[in-house]
């Protein structure tokens, strides 16, 4: 069963994302003050998505509902327990990309093609997921890594304890 903790980890793994609790206990995730995901006290997740993505979610999840403001579709609402963790990660990413400023979204999307050992002076041994996560966050050098805490690094989706250990060893 997917949890708020999983939603939080996925949402906060993207740059410039903030979390806040708003009216009636809604936990909202925003990028530069634009909400892209939230969950309410009834454990319903709202994802702000473009129309083609809305249609995909509605087909994949029979319990999902179209989210509208006025007459305009703005996303979907689905019970957090009705979506598995991998699907949630995918849709949170799509929601973040659709709401983030274009340059920031482009930088994160560019990280998708980053190959280990080919980005700045990041070591190849950290692997593909960590390389893509760091590049997507705009981190391409060991000097930039040095300015981050282990907790900062581990908060990035794709950077695990092994990659952090390799980065720290390389820095020393």
CATH architecture of the largest domain: Alpha-Beta Complex
Count of DSSP E strands?
6
- Rg measurement, Å: 17 Å
The CATH class of the largest domain turns out to be Alpha Beta
Low-confidence stretches: none
> In percent, how helical is the residue content?
40-55%
What's the pLDDT, averaged over the residues? 91
The rounded distance between the terminal residues' Cα atoms is 40 Å
**Separate helix tally:** 8
Descriptive account of the structure:
This is Helix-hairpin-helix domain-containing protein. The chain has 172 residues and is of the alpha+beta class. The chain has 2 domains: 4-100, Aspartate Aminotransferase, domain 1 (Alpha-Beta Complex); 111-171. The protein has helices at 4-12, 51-60, 85-99, 102-110, 128-136, 142-146, 150-154, 161-171, and strands at residues 17-22, 26-31, 34-39, 44-48, 65-69, 72-79. Strands 1-2-3-4-6-5 form a 6-stranded antiparallel sheet.
Question: How are the SSEs placed, and which strands pair?
Answer:
Blueprint: H1 4-12, E1 17-22, E2 26-31, E3 34-39, E4 44-48, H2 51-60, E5 65-69, E6 72-79, H3 85-99, H4 102-110, H5 128-136, H6 142-146, H7 150-154, H8 161-171
Antiparallel strand pairs: 1-2, 2-3, 3-4, 4-6, 5-6
Helix pairs in contact: 1-3, 3-4, 4-5
Organism: Dactylosporangium fulvum
Protein name: Helix-hairpin-helix domain-containing protein
Question: Which characteristics define this entry?
Answer:
172 residues, 2 domains, six-stranded antiparallel β-sheet, Aspartate Aminotransferase, domain 1, single chain, Helix-hairpin-helix domain-containing protein, alpha+beta
């Amino acid at each position: 069963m997917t949890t708020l903790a999983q939603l939080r980890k996925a949402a906060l793994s993207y740059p410039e994302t903030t979390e806040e609790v708003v009216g009636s206990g809604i936990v909202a995730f925003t990028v530069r003050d634009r909400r892209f995901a939230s969950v309410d006290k009834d454990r319903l997740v709202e994802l702000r998505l473009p129309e083609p993505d809305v249609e995909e979610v509605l087909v994949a999840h029979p319990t999902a509902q179209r989210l509208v403001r006025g007459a305009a579709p703005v996303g979907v609402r689905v019970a957090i327990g009705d979506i598995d963790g991998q699907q949630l990660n995918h849709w949170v990413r799509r929601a973040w990309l659709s709401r983030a400023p274009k340059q920031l979204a482009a930088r994160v999307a560019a990280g998708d093609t980053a190959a280990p050992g080919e980005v700045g002076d990041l070591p190849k041994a950290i692997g593909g997921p960590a390389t893509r996560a760091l590049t997507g966050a705009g981190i391409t050098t060991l000097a930039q890594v040095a300015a981050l805490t282990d907790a900062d690094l581990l908060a990035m989706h794709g950077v695990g304890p092994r990659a952090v250990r390799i980065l720290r060893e390389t820095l020393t």
